[in-house]
Amino acid sequence: MGAPKQRWTSEEEAALRAGVARHGVGNWRMILNDPELSSTLRYRSNVDLKDKWRNMNVIVTSSSTRDRGRTSTRRTRAAPKNNDQLLAMSTITSEVDDEIVDVKPIVSMSVEGWNTSNSKKSHSRLDNIIMEAIKNLNEPTGSHRTTIANYIEEQYWPPSDFDHLLSAKLKYLATSGKLLKVNMIFSSLHHFML
DNA sequence: CTAGGGATAGCC
DNA sequence: GGCTATCCCTAG
């Protein structure tokens, strides 16, 4: 007697990721009201968004033939927010008591080398993170630097001078042809190959 | 409204 | 049946 299951399309998932990138985790209503996303998400409620996000950020690695009886509940480990807790990233929790459920953020890249206080080394991984950000943002024509910055700040724990870093990196990626820059909008070649 | 825990539809 | 993605309930 519940409603029939309406599975999420990849377009809807992309819209949700973009929404979270723009407005932050937990601002489901705001995401729904985003003029760019409201049409794709028109069949979803704020609660649907919340539930879906919870589910998307979980990877279950238990083959489970032998799971404790309980109604199977998963432990979720939401992606870290831009708040005041040291990076608990890359904490691939192994097991919690008797539940052998192991989860990790969907965008799981190691960010080792990043410090909360400041950066000291070169971050060759930044390239990958930027690429991943643009890809996951999935905006039809590419993304503005500020949007990219917001997204990365959602997922990771960038140093305080991250804005400068990002600007420099984007500039480099653009001039080296790894990214396309048109009117302040950065897009990956990926955008034009589909 | 959002966060979580619970319930259930559907798949294998 | 077990299992997950989705849907429902409700405290705060």
Automatic annotation (TrEMBL):
<dbReference type="InterPro" id="IPR001005">
    <property type="entry name" value="SANT/Myb"/>
</dbReference>
<comment type="function">
    <text>Binds preferentially double-stranded telomeric repeats, but may also bind to the single telomeric strand.</text>
</comment>
<dbReference type="InterPro" id="IPR036388">
    <property type="entry name" value="WH-like_DNA-bd_sf"/>
</dbReference>
<keyword id="KW-0539">Nucleus</keyword>
<dbReference type="InterPro" id="IPR017930">
    <property type="entry name" value="Myb_dom"/>
</dbReference>
<feature type="domain" description="Myb-like">
    <location>
        <begin position="5"/>
        <end position="57"/>
    </location>
</feature>
<keyword id="KW-0804">Transcription</keyword>
<keyword id="KW-0238">DNA-binding</keyword>
<dbReference type="InterPro" id="IPR009057">
    <property type="entry name" value="Homeodomain-like_sf"/>
</dbReference>
<dbReference type="GO" id="GO:0005730">
    <property type="term" value="C:nucleolus"/>
</dbReference>
<dbReference type="Pfam" id="PF00538">
    <property type="entry name" value="Linker_histone"/>
</dbReference>
<keyword id="KW-0158">Chromosome</keyword>
<keyword id="KW-0805">Transcription regulation</keyword>
<dbReference type="GO" id="GO:0003691">
    <property type="term" value="F:double-stranded telomeric DNA binding"/>
</dbReference>
<feature type="domain" description="H15">
    <location>
        <begin position="122"/>
        <end position="194"/>
    </location>
</feature>
<feature type="domain" description="HTH myb-type">
    <location>
        <begin position="1"/>
        <end position="33"/>
    </location>
</feature>
<keyword id="KW-0175">Coiled coil</keyword>
<dbReference type="GO" id="GO:0000781">
    <property type="term" value="C:chromosome, telomeric region"/>
</dbReference>
<comment type="subunit">
    <text>Forms a homodimer and heterodimers.</text>
</comment>
<dbReference type="InterPro" id="IPR044597">
    <property type="entry name" value="SMH1-6"/>
</dbReference>
<keyword id="KW-0779">Telomere</keyword>
<dbReference type="GO" id="GO:0000786">
    <property type="term" value="C:nucleosome"/>
</dbReference>
<protein>
    <submittedName>
        <fullName>Uncharacterized protein</fullName>
    </submittedName>
</protein>
<dbReference type="InterPro" id="IPR005818">
    <property type="entry name" value="Histone_H1/H5_H15"/>
</dbReference>
<dbReference type="GO" id="GO:0006334">
    <property type="term" value="P:nucleosome assembly"/>
</dbReference>
<dbReference type="Pfam" id="PF00249">
    <property type="entry name" value="Myb_DNA-binding"/>
</dbReference>
<dbReference type="InterPro" id="IPR036390">
    <property type="entry name" value="WH_DNA-bd_sf"/>
</dbReference>
